[in-house]
Amino acid sequence: MSNLYEHDFVAWAEQQAHLLRTGQWSRLDIDNIVEEIADVGKSERHALQSRLRVLIAHLLKWTHQPARRGRSWRRTIKDQRAAIALHLKRHPSLKPALDDPDWLESAFADARTDAFDETGIPDLPLNLPWSIEQLMDQDFLPE
Questions:
Q1: Within a domain: residue 33?
Q2: How confident is the model at residue 17, as a pLDDT?
Q3: Who has the most CB within 10 Å: 21, 53, 93, 95?
Q4: Total domains in the fold of the chain
């Protein structure tokens, strides 16, 4: 079964689903099933951080390039907030990540790099200038 896992993941997943549905417990590829389940959690956590990264990068650009503000940036900010809220609704166990300073700092560092790469602005803040409440507030736009 491991061989199938390594060479055709889709076929392996279908096979494992069939074995589960038919109660063939002894034939299951437990080690790889465990890894895949753990990866799902990591993937959802990464997706949340990615959305937050885009949100923060756009808020940084909004703050530091007022002359370039437009509907596109406003729409991206709104869309990312909505997507984060939906992600948290679907996966409520991820909410504590928003209170984890290291996790937030990682998202901010990546967002800062993105904003710098896109704008070249040298004086972007070194630390996240907004609270998680501000980041998630649909009406908040820094001035």
A1: no
A2: 96
A3: 53
A4: 1
